Amino acid sequence: MISKTLQTRLKKMALLGLVSISVFSLAACGGKKKSKGTTNKSTEVTEVDSEGNVVNLGNLYEGTGYTISAPSNWADAKTSNESLDLMIYDTNITGDFARNLNIIIEDLSAYSSMDADKYLDAAKTKLVQSGYAVEDGESKDINGVYTTSLIYSYTTNGYVVKGQQTYFYNEGDKKVYIVTFACAEEEFETYKEAGNEIINTFQFD
Q1: Over the stretch 59-76, which tens digit does the pLDDT of each residue have?
Q2: What is the annotated signal peptide range for this record (predicted)?
Q3: 3-class secondary structure for the chain?
Q4: How far apart are CA 44 and CA 41, in angstroms?
Q5: Residue 50, pLDDT above cutoff 80
Q6: Which residues, 6+ apart, have CB-to-CB distance to 159 below 8 Å?
Q7: Torsion sign, CA atoms 77, 80, 81, 86
Q8: 129-184, pLDDT tens digit by residue?
Q9: Residue 68: how many CB atoms within 10 A of its CB?
Q10: Which residue ranges make up each domain of the chain?
Q11: What is this structure's pTM?
Q12: Alpha-carbon distance 122 to 202, whole Å?
């Protein structure tokens, strides 16, 4: 059973982690979020594909059209928020705000011209207009998919949150998969590489 303290921290995480709002619509997929299974594996038996990419860090999460892996000390927050396809968090909580990662899927089939770079530009504009501080992130291939990213920070209810959003655009289904790693600002430099290790396991089905 989850303790009341953990419930409170997860509630704060859910409220503060919702920076990963979709840019072009209010609903991520337009449909009901499906349930996802979790495959637990030892972190010492890390899987690597033929190109040397890590594909399993311990817990493998099967989302809507993708998989992503996190260390065994991370867990599914089992959020009831329908806009999030997945939210996981680091159970080694060191403060009032749990380090977490969430995924939103946005359907862009209504737009004739879209890619990861154009979505990044739109996301920057929306976040700045909403009062967030935004820095340029890294553009790179992750498991054969070109991705773009940005770093953001903002203050809410006395908390300063900092995180990274990475955008995976699926040309096949015309959807962008927004992967957001977030933590307290003072922890970001310490844990950003751990966040990137998880993001680097993202793969389309």
Answers
A1: 999 999 999 999 999 999
A2: 1-27
A3: CCCHHHHHHHHHHHHHCCCCCCCCCCCCCCCCCCCCCEEECCCCCCEECCCCCEEECCEEEECCCEEEEECCCEEECCCCCCCCCEEEEECCCCCCCCCEEEEEEEECCCCCCCCHHHHHHHHHHHHHHCCCEEEECCCEEECCEEEEEEEEEEEECCEEEEEEEEEEEECCCCEEEEEEEEEEHHHHHHHHHHHHHHHCCCEEC
A4: 8
A5: no
A6: 12, 16, 96, 97, 184
A7: positive
A8: 989 999 999 999 999 999 999 999 998 778 889 999 999 999 999 999 999 999 99
A9: 25
A10: 4-204
A11: 0.81
A12: 22
**CA separation for the pair 155, 132 (Å, rounded):** 8
| pLDDT score for 51 | 67
Residue 33 structure tokens? 């979020």
Whole-angstrom Cα distance, residue 9 to residue 11? 5
Mean pLDDT over the full length of the chain: 80
Question: Do you know the residue count of the chain?
Answer: 205
Q: Which CATH superfamily is domain 4-204 in?
A: Mog1/PsbP, alpha/beta/alpha sandwich (3.40.1000.10)
